[in-house]
Amino acid sequence: MTGIMGWAGFPWKLYNDIPSLIGYTSLALIIYKAGIGIINRFFCYTNRFSYEWYLVHILVFQVVKHVAENHVPVTVGFAMCLFLSYCIAWGYGKLWSQKVQKK
Fold first, then answer.
1. Cβ of 68: how many Cβ atoms within 10 Å?
2. pLDDT tens digit string along 28-53?
3. Residues 6+ away with beta carbon under 8 Å from 20
4. Start-end of H helices in 35-70
5. What's the pTM value of the predicted model, to 2 decimals?
6. 52/99 Cα distance (integer angstroms)
7. Cα dist from 40 to 3, 35, 74, 87, whole Å
8. 3-state class of 71 per DSSP?
9. Which of 25, 20, 86, 100 shows the shortest CA–CA distance to 52?
10. What is the Cα–Cα distance from 34 to 70, expressed in whole angstroms?
11. Is 70 left (phi over 0), alpha (psi -120 to 50) or beta?
């Protein structure tokens, strides 16, 4: 439902927050309850800077889309977006935690 609302455009894009929240929460719970140790540790580690990832992901996606559009396949561009936004969020989280600790 979230994907359809996102692709449908303007008025529907405004109302996709609740379905997104329910969908992503359900997926996270299913993955966590599966009990695969390495995946659970990855998500627990990522949780340390998930807010920073939320803050930077759209900017990174837009920059990669602008730079790589028509130069790389869509799947490669998407993988680049995920990897770069994850790394930038991790660095931003480290920078922010150092600044907070200095106070």
1. 15
2. 899 989 999 999 999 999 999 999 99
3. 2
4. 37-46, 50-68
5. 0.72
6. 14
7. 25, 7, 28, 19
8. coil
9. 86
10. 38
11. left
Q: Where are the alpha helices (DSSP H) in the chain?
A: 2-8, 10-13, 17-34, 37-46, 50-68, 74-102
The amino acid that residue 96 corresponds to is: W
- List C-alpha distances in Å: 59 to 28, 72, 85: 24, 19, 9
pLDDT in tens, 51-78: 999 999 989 999 998 998 889 898 898 8
The span from the CA of 84 to the CA of 60, in Å, is: 7
Q: How far is CA 2 from CA 5, 67, 85, in A?
A: 5, 26, 21
